[in-house]
UniProtKB/TrEMBL annotation:
Keywords: Signal
Organism: Candidatus Gallitreponema excrementavium
Signal peptide: none
The keyword Nucleotide-binding is annotated on this UniProt entry: no
Residue ranges that the Swiss-Prot or TrEMBL entry lists as coiled coil: none
Stated name of the protein: Transporter substrate-binding domain-containing protein
Organism classification: Bacteria, Pseudomonadati, Spirochaetota, Spirochaetia, Spirochaetales
Length: 112
């Protein structure tokens, strides 16, 4: 994360002409995105709402399989992805990534 605490995102050009930004996600990763009742909620959704607000748009959340996200973005079915996706060289060949806003370390746990 940048030192000043600001998150830099690539420029987003909405596909829809009616000021709706479509956020693609896979709502299976709480607390980032998950279904509560009949609504997708979580940190990434709140961040998406803020991005939409900054663009003067409303947010439409599109829940889909994780493997469908990049193809949906590439085809223009969604405007951006917020889904706990890690940056890989293969993915970087097809899409632009923001500065990472969350880092985690995976570990194996054993008895003492």
């Amino acid at each position: 994360m940048p030192a000043d605490g600001e998150i830099t995102i690539p420029e987003i050009t909405p596909v829809a002409s009616d000021k709706v930004l479509k956020l693609g996600t896979n709502a299976a990763f709480p607390p980032f995105e998950y279904v509560e009742g009949n609504k997708v909620v979580g940190f990434d959704i709140t961040m998406g709402e803020r991005i939409a607000k900054d663009y003067g748009a409303t947010l439409e959340v599109v829940d889909m399989s994780f493997d469908s996200l990049i193809p949906a973005l590439s085809s223009g079915a969604i405007d951006f992805i917020a889904a706990g996706m890690s940056v890989t060289e293969e993915r970087k060949q097809n899409v632009d990534f923001s500065v990472p806003y969350y880092e985690s370390e995976q570990v194996i746990i054993v008895r003492k």
